[in-house]
Design goal:
Elements: H1 2-17, H2 37-42, E1 49-61, E2 64-68, E3 73-77, E4 93-103, E5 106-117
Parallel strand pairs: 3-5
Antiparallel strand pairs: 1-2, 1-4, 2-3, 4-5
């Protein structure tokens, strides 16, 4: 029974440590992530994946902020539980990943899925 437990634990460890939960397919047919605010503002496509580096320049309400990549700005929505566990301000450089939320009758914004301090 001890060998069975060891084999199970080894297999579990290997299964959990291989691969990356955030890895994406990047081969033929894949779509690249948008990396600048100007492209989003110029042609907002709902559910497009984005990865942006810049600053949260203003808090608009509880979970809505103004994000700037240094050239252009866009609203971003960040759930409070997704914010870093350290204080950030308008001078803290961050990297955000998420998707575009665009519609005919709503303000284009980014629904942030991940934010990290650079």
């Amino acid at each position: 029974m001890n060998k069975t437990l060891t084999a199970f634990l080894t297999a579990s460890t290997i299964a959990l440590s291989t691969g990356n939960a955030f890895a994406d397919y990047t081969g033929p047919g894949s779509t690249s992530k948008i990396s600048d605010v100007a492209s989003i503002n110029k042609n907002p496509i709902d559910d497009s994946q984005v990865e942006l580096t810049g600053y949260l320049t203003k808090k608009i309400d509880k979970e809505t902020y103004l994000f700037s990549d240094g050239k252009d700005s866009i609203q971003v929505e960040i759930d409070s539980e997704d914010l870093p566990h350290v204080s950030i301000n308008e001078k803290t450089q961050v990297k955000i990943s998420g998707e575009v939320e665009a519609g005919a009758f709503e303000t284009t914004e980014i629904e942030v899925e991940k934010i990290s301090i650079i």
